[in-house]
User: Fold this.
Amino acid sequence: MANPVTILGIAGSLRRDSYNRAILRSVRDLTPTDAQLEIFEELGQIPLFNQDEEANPPEVISTFKSKIRQADAILFVTPEYNYSIPGVLKNAIDWASRPYGDSAWAGKPAAIISASPSLFGAARAQYHLRQVFVFLDMYAINRPEVMIGKAPERFDNQGRLVDHTTQDLIRLLLQNLIDWTRQLNASRSVGVR
Ligand SMILES: Cc1cc2nc3c(=O)[nH]c(=O)nc-3n(C[C@H](O)[C@H](O)[C@H](O)COP(=O)(O)O)c2cc1C
Assistant:
């Protein structure tokens, strides 16, 4: 059997009862057996980016960058703040993209889940994140678009994601991410990408 695809999951919220963090925890139970999910839990320890420090970053950044590099694929699960990506997530992305020429993101396959109590499921944050992927040279999964609206209705009172439609969409997204990652890795091994 092929090696499992390793996925690094990053949630874009620091809130204790965050829906997005709860969704990322639920992804563990939805991940197929031919993949492994590691959740990056240290987002709140990342300081504000300062370009003066990019050549000698704090240890948390070196750890973050090596976790990204070790992972075969990245899964972002994010809310939307003022129609865009939360600052904590953009800040972390910026750190791991620097110094110029030493980005940890380059060439990584990626998938996005977003959730909001509103109807639109943080769709605008997803599209901003996709725009960021262009400069980062990340390969985003296009379908399915997992934009979870009315998020509070999809959890039980213990904060577990129990909505079957949402679970099925996430399973499909993960499967597409795994297939896409294997395809990319196979192309790389024969020098196509
Ligand atoms: C600064 C701020 C801006 C927000 N802007 C949006 C927004 O543009 N669109 C949206 O759907 N929800 C917005 N919200 C509401 C969030 O979707 C809501 O707080 C959500 O629960 C945050 O995600 P979390 O539960 O994972 O922390 C905003 C919340 C904050 C704190």
Observations:
- Residues 164-189 form the longest helix (26 residues).
- The pocket of flavin mononucleotide is lined by residues 13, 15, 18-20, 79-83, 116-118, 120, 122 (CB under 6 Å).
- The helical segments are 19-30, 59-70, 87-96, 123-136, 164-189.
